[in-house]
Amino acid sequence: MARRTTKTLFAEDEPVEAVNVAAPLAERMRPRLLEEFVGQEHLVGEGRILRRLIEGAGALPSLILWGAPGTGKTTLARLLAEKSGAHFVPLSAVFSGVKDVRAAISEAREARKHGERTVLFIDEIHRFNKAQQDALLPAVESGTVTLIGATTENPSFEVTGALLSRSRVLVLNPLTEESIEEILRRALADSERGLAQLHPDVSDEMIKRLAHSAAGDARVGLAALEAAVESTEPDKEGVRRVTLETIVEALGRAHYAYDKGGEEHYNLASALIKSLRNSDVNAALYWLARLIEGGADPVFIARRLCILASEDIGLADPQAMVQAAAAAEITRLIGLPEALYPLSQATIYLAQAPKSNAVKRAYMAAAEDAAETAREPVPLHLRNAVTPLMKRVGYGSGYRYVHSDSRAREEMECLPERLSGRIYYDEDDEEVDSS
Fold this sequence. Notes:
Blueprint: E1 3-6, E2 14-17, H1 25-28, H2 41-44, H3 49-55, E3 63-67, H4 73-83, E4 87-92, H5 98-113, E5 118-123, H6 130-134, H7 137-142, E6 146-151, H8 155-158, H9 161-165, E7 168-172, H10 177-189, E8 200-201, H11 204-213, H12 218-230, E9 240-241, H13 244-251, H14 263-277, H15 281-293, H16 298-313, H17 319-334, H18 340-352, H19 358-372, H20 388-392, H21 408-411
Parallel strand pairs: 3-6, 3-7, 4-5, 5-6, 8-9
Antiparallel strand pairs: 1-2
Helix pairs in contact: 10-11, 10-12, 11-13, 12-13, 14-15, 14-16, 15-18, 16-17, 16-18, 17-18
C-alpha cells in the first residue's frame, strides 16, 4: 500500500499509511485537499473569508468554528493548518486537560524557535471549563499557537469572553442535501478510500433518501451508506444491490439524533412552547415528536407543559393546569414509550385552550412594586399579635374578620399605604385568545 510522510509536532518524518482501511468510511473519505472540500461555500468559496486567509500573505488567525456535527469543522482545521504550512496538533476536550494543553504549548514553543508555526486544534472546546480555557490564553496572545476550536454549542455561552475576543467565530451551516449527495457518490466511486471495491449498486432514489435523512450531517449519511453496503450480500456477479429496506434499517434513528444537553435540545423545546402559545396544535405535536424521538427526557417535556399551562393559559382555562399536571404525574409513573400518549393529550389540550398571560402579568406587576417598596412595613392590622407586648403596641388592631364582617372586603385595605388601591389582576381584563 502506498505510504506518505507526515510531519507532526510529536513525531517528525513518521511514515503513515495513506489510508487506514479499518477506519470508518467518514474518516477515510475526509478531504485531503481544500479542493475536495464540499459545502460551506460562504466560507471557502472564491473571495470568501477562509479562502482569503489561506491565499493571503498574513498569518492564520485563531478561529472558533461553530457548527452542527458532520459539517466539516475538523476537516477545515486540518486543511487550514496544511495550507498555512503549520504543524497541526489535535486535542479533544473530552479526553484532554490542562496538562495536555501545557504539553502541546511547550512543544509549540520549541517549534517556534526554529521558525515553525503551530495550529492547536481543540475539538469540542465547549467541554473545557474556564480554567482549561484560560490556560490557552498566554500562548494565543503571544502567537505561540494559532488556536482553532471546534464547537457544536453557541460559543457566546460556552467559550470564555477572553478567548472569544482573541478569535474569529465562523459559523458552519448544515450541509445541503445536494452536498451530501455529492459526498455519498464520491464514496461509492472511490476504490482507494471508499466503497467501489465492494461493487455497490445504490439507486439515485436511495442516495437522495440518505442525503435527506442525514439532516445536514455528512457522517450520518456516510455511516448509513457504509452499513447498508456492507450488510448487503453480493449476488452471483459480485454486485451488492442495496435495497431501500436496508437503507432505512441502516439509518435507524440517526436522523433524529441531537445533543440532549446542548443548544439544539433547547431550540426544540422553545419551538414546542412557542407553537403551543400560538395555538398551533399541528406544529406543537411535530416539535413534541422531535423531542421524544430524539431521546429527550419526558419529564423535562412535562415540566415545560406545566409551566405553559399557567404562564400562557392560567385562569382562562383552569383545567389546562390539571391536564398538564396529570400528564406529568403519569409520565413519571409509566415512562416512555407509553408516556407519549398523555404528553400528546396534554399538548393537544394546551394548544386548543384559550390563551391569557394575565397571571404572569399580575405577578410581574406585583413583583415590580415589591422591589420598589421592599422596606414598606406590613400594616399593623395585618400583623398577628402573638404576645401581650405586640397587642399593646397595636399589632392586629383594626383587623376585620371577613367571615363575620361582610363589608371588610371592600373597606379594609390590605396593601401598604403607598400602594393603596393598586390593581395587579383584573379578572375582567384577561385578554383571552380563544383561537
